[in-house]
Amino acid sequence: MDCTREIAVALGYDPERFDAPFVIAKGKGELARKILEEAKKHNVPIVRSPELVKKLYELEILQQIPEELFIAVAEILVFIRNL
């Protein structure tokens, strides 16, 4: 497994602070694996979307997702809500 190709981005949403979901953690390789382990440990749903995660990875920590990603992220949130 090529750990340099593993990327993880965790999103949060706090409507009192932000108008849109925002990046709370991101990492590649070992850090990506640790983010995924923590998500599993806390029963946080994991959705794999390679193209979306690449775009989200470009954002800074606490940066809100840009408007052009609203639909893609909303679709994931609806999917998670329906689990």
UniProtKB/TrEMBL annotation:
Report the protein name in the record.
FlhB
Q: Which InterPro entries does UniProt cross-reference here? A: T3SS_substrate_exporter, T3SS_substrate_exporter_C
Among the GO biological process terms of this entry, one is: protein secretion
Pfam families (alphabetical): Bac_export_2 (PF01312)
PANTHER family documented for this protein: FLAGELLAR BIOSYNTHETIC PROTEIN FLHB
Domain of life of the native organism: Bacteria
An example GO CC term for this entry is: plasma membrane
Record organism? Pseudothermotoga hypogea DSM 11164 = NBRC 106472
